[in-house]
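Record minuted for completeness.

…
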Amino acid sequence: MKKVIALSSLLALSTTASAFDYKISLEGRGDFVNGNYKTTAAGVTSTEKYSTFSNNLVRLNMMGTINDNLTYRLRYRLVSSAANPSGTANGAREVNAQSLDYLYADHKNEYFTLRFGKQNWVDALAREGYVSGTDVFIASQANADYNSAIGVYRWGLTGTYKFAETNNLILALSNPNSTMTDTTGVEEKNNSLAMAAMYNGSFMDKMFQPTFGYTLAKQDPDTDAAAGATTKKADFTLMSAGFRSEVSGFTVDADYKIMEKENRNSGTTTTFVKTEAKSIYGSVAYSAGDFTPIAYYINDKFDSETNSADFKRNAFAFGTYYKPFADVNFRYHAMFTNDVKKFEHTTATTTKITDRRVYFGFKADI
């Protein structure tokens, strides 16, 4: 609580003492969730049923304009709870983030925009990457692996070149994920950088908005003296392609992603095997006045060297958003999700997981 009060005081002091434009908002989502989680192992199905009230997340946003060429943004997470209240299924991409999401400055000139600080490479994950954490009900496996191996929010440098008015080419550099380079308690080497090249565009009055991304995160070895518990250098890569189409009140998003992690095993370490996640993501929304019916679909195929972890997954969600006030960013939502994961090898302890949920809640950004 002291940390929150100190941060609020600092923001108030800095903004009142400055003459430039700024905006502060509080964003959050709350849900009532009723869930049914089934696990099948050795021919026996066990069921977990639960009902719970939960905060998806609460965060403080601050955006400011210093002059025509310089802007900044700060976003601080006050509450960050799992999107899965029972803690038993794939989490949303925001779960593992630290409290400080954004702290960056944008310097614009006539050729490009330079961004320095803690930021998020939303274009790396194609259309799924554009979904706010307050709107996530299901997330792809490629998304989850990207979060754990590379990380969503990171300190770095990004350059955006805008051409033909509606096209952006983005080049980015960042730290690697320290949880990958420090696996034995003493991080001896962390020189490699994560890098990305991303593109997004818009054609035919938003009817076709493509996005492409390639991310490479080189992870240095962890070579401290723990007996046999060393890891070797490896490359983690994410390749993505997607598009959005906006026409006649409909908004359609779709993408395809491949997230690969190389084998890092060295010495007696056996936990860092090679894995590959291939994910298809899609959503359709229709704007009908105060109501927005929406549906999501995810198809995952996960392969690993051990085979026992391999699975195929189909997940969908559908429901509606209701925005009662035209001039206030506040909405209610009702959503049903169905998530089925089938393990493909008889050596797997668990053969099938079925996770069904009903959400009733609200989202506010005020």
In short: Residues 24-365 form a domain with the Porin fold (CATH 2.40.160.10). Residues 2-16 form the longest helix (15 residues).
